[in-house]
Protein 1
Amino acid sequence: MGRRAVAERAERLADEVQGPIEGLTYDELAAFTEPRLVTGLPGPKASAVIEADSRVTSPSLPRAYPLAPSRGAGSVVEDVDGNVFLDFNAAIAVCSTGHAHPKVVAAIQRQAELLLHYSASDFYLPIYAELCARLDEIEPVPGDARSFLTNSGTEAVEAAIKLARATTKRQYVIAFLGAFHGRSYGSVTLTASNAKYHEGFGPLLPGVLHAPFGADDTDRYIENVIFKRLVKPNEIAAIVVEPVQGEGGYRIPPDGWLTYLRELCTEHGILLVADEVQSGMGRTGRMWAVQHWGVEPDIVLAGKGIASGMPLGDMIARADLMTWPTGAHGSTYGGNPVACAAALATIDLIEGELAANAANLGGVLLDGLTLRAGDSTIRLSPPLVMNRDQAATGLRILEEACAEVSGTGPS
Ligand SMILES: Cc1ncc(COP(=O)(O)O)c(C=O)c1O
C-alpha cells in the first residue's frame, strides 16, 4: 500500500472503527494524524491494569497520567482499550526514533538471535567497542574520547562523579538549581529541581554545591560566592550542567553562559560535565545541545534517546582523562549487546535525517506555542519522526485544552 493509501485508511479507521484495532499494520498506525478515542479515559482495560498495578508496584513511581500503552508506531501509541494517541512525550524523550522504528527493531532482532548478553566489563564484546568507536565519531569533547556504557542516565552521572573525583583528586562538585540528574545517591544530590527528590533520604553525597542556572556573567555567583566564601576552585573536581534544563522547565541558558562556564573550568582545572541525557541525541536539532554554542565539555553524558528505548546510557570522556585503573568501575549489564545494536541503528537514523527533522519541527512547534516556562511548564518531547500534520493536531488540541482550563474556551 502506498503512503497516501495508508494515511487514508488510518483516517477512515479513526472515524469508523470502535474497539481495539485488529490487523492494523505498523504503517497504518504510524499514519494517524488525529487521536481516536473509543472509551472514556482510562478505559475499562486500562482501569483494570491500573488497579492490578496499584497492589504490587512501588508507590514511589511518579505516574503522570493513567495511560496504559499496548503498542506504538512512529509518533502514535495505542492503549489497551484501542484508544489511539499522538505521542508528544516519546516515553519522556526516550523513543526519539519513534515507537518501534523498523530499522531499530531489525537491529535488535538480529542481535538477539546472535547473543543476548555477555558482560563487557569482564570480557571483550565486539559490539560494545563498535558502539564506543561510533560514539567517538559524534561526541562533542575535544580530541579522542572513550566511553563507559551504562544501563541508565543516572549511572552515567555516577560514573562521571567518580571519574572526575578520581582524575582530579578533588572532592567538590558544582551543579545548578533546577537541575535533574537522576535518583541514585550521587545524581540525586546534584538534582535540585524539586525538594521531594531529597525528602527523607539525607544525608546525601557530601561535597555538592549548587549555583543559579544561567545567571548572567555579571552575577558571577560561582566566583563571588562559591570560590570566595565556600570552597577554593582548586578543590572543585567538576561542574555538572544540563546545557538545556529538562525537568527544570526546558530552560535554555542565555547565550555566552556555557562558554563562560567552559572558560571558568579551563582557568581552574575543573572538568566541565555536560549532562545531555535528555538534551542529547538530536533532541534539540543538533546531535548535542552544547553544539548550539560551540562549547566542548570534558565529559558528556548520554541516555534516554540513545537506544530508542533499550536501556543504555553513556559517559563519554576525553581519552586523556580516562586513566582510572582496571577494576575502578564496571557494570554487569552496561553496554548489553542488544542495547548496543539498538544504539548503532538509532545513531544512524538521527544523523541521517532525524536531527534535521527535529530542527524543522521544533521551529513549527515553538511558533505554535505561547506557553510560559517555570513551575507551570508543560513538557513536550515528541519523537523526532513526528510529521507536520501530527504536530499541527497536537498544537490545536493543546490550545483547546489550555483555553478550556483557563475558562477562555469551550468546556
Ligand atoms: C538530564 C538528565 N540526567 C539524568 C537523568 C536520569 O536518567 P535515568 O532516569 O535513565 O536514570 C535524566 C532523566 O530524566 C535526565 O533528564
Protein 2
Amino acid sequence: MEVKKITLYGDTPTCQLGGGVLPECDNPAEYDMPTVYGPWAYLCEEHYQSHTPSGAGAIGTHITWVGDATRTREVGPESFGPHAFGVDVRP
Ligand SMILES: [Zn+2]
C-alpha cells in the first residue's frame, strides 16, 4: 500500500508516540497515522512500522515538512490529512 504523500509548511515535529509505558521518542515525525491505541499521531518511520494497525497506510499520510514557519496552510487541496487539518504546526 502506497501511503499518500503530502507537504506541509512548518518545522518537522517529533514523533508523538512514547512516554507512558513506551520510551520517549524524539525521532522526526514523517507520518500522520492512526495508532494501535486509537488516536491519530505524528509518527516516526520506526513507530509507523511498529504501532499502526493494519490498513493504516490507506488512510494515513506521509508528510514532508518544509521549514517555513510563517506559513501553515497546506500546499494543495488534496494535501491534508485528517489529523493535520486544523493543526497549527508553528512552534
Ligand atoms: Zn517514534
